[in-house]
Amino acid sequence: MRKALISFVAALFLTAHARAGGEMEYREGGIIRGPTEKREIALEFTGDQFVEGGPVILDQLARHRIKASFFLTGRCLRKAENRALIRRIIDEGHYLGPHSDSHPLLCSWEAPKKTLVSREFFLSDMGRNLEAIETLGAPRAAARYFIAPYEWYNAEIAAWAAEMGLVVVNFTPGTRSTADYTESGATNYASSQEILESIEGRERQAGAAGWLLLLHLGAGPGRADKMHDRLGELIGYFQGRGYQFVRIDQMAAPKPAARESKVK
């Protein structure tokens, strides 16, 4: 009974957000693409263990005068050596949102996607992540959008997130942008050139309006070919094609209802 009530309340929350937010594309309760009426893209960066690309990424965003969205785990936020980087993210006007506290796998890789954690664990883990964000000076009320660890979730996870007033966002499928973490020599490895070509090719084929384009804040020592070194090139491509970059809360936030005219 309680589970059914929770799911019902969460469904109402997500439905209200979807109706207010415009024509967004959802999958399993999470946003995977924003409205396509404008040539806007939301750049997303997730970070947990590795964040070595952070300074280069922030420098390129500043150089091109655009804002992006960063989703960091609690353990990433609490590392003293990351403090200056996180301060820059906040001070330079980027979105800072949760990515879980301990980066657990929330549901199985195989279908059907069975939830692997309890509701209590999820709420506690997310609570610690949000507390870490607030401790660093970003208001809790502003952290409304959440990217799941490994960018992997199901409808139950989306419903639990909705209980906390969070909307799950992910990435727009169709490119290899998320492969920028793959290690050199691995069977799933994709070079930065291959990633760029997949992104640009998909845009030329089908357009990129409303894309949620996800990259990683770092890939660690196992990857020598760092995608963040090509970020300026990627941004330049899209700007040359007439796209603008916006924060996730600008793209996905519910739009205010039209005010009724009082003119008789």
Essential attributes:
38% helix, 264 residues, TIM Barrel, two-stranded antiparallel sheet, alpha/beta
Average per-residue pLDDT, rounded, comes to 91
Number of strands: 9
CATH fold-level label: TIM Barrel
Extract low-pLDDT stretches: 257-264
CATH class: Alpha Beta
CATH architecture: Alpha-Beta Barrel
Shape field:
globular
Number of structurally distinct domains:
1
Oligomer: single chain
Strand content: 5-15%
How would you summarize the topology of this molecule?
Elements: H1 2-21, E1 25-27, E2 30-33, E3 40-47, H2 54-63, E4 69-72, H3 74-78, H4 83-91, E5 95-98, H5 119-135, E6 145-146, H6 155-163, E7 167-168, H7 192-206, E8 211-216, H8 231-240, E9 244-245, H9 248-252
Parallel strand pairs: 3-4, 3-8, 3-9, 4-5, 6-7
Antiparallel strand pairs: 1-2
Helix pairs in contact: 1-6
What report would you give on this structure?
The structure is a single chain. The radius of gyration is 18 Å and the shape is globular. The chain is built from nine helices and nine strands. The relative contact order is 0.21. The longest helix has 20 residues, at 2-21. The strands form three sheets. Strands 3, 4, 5, 8 and 9 form a five-stranded parallel sheet that branches. It is α/β, with parallel strands linked by helices. Helices cover 38% and strands 13% of the residues.
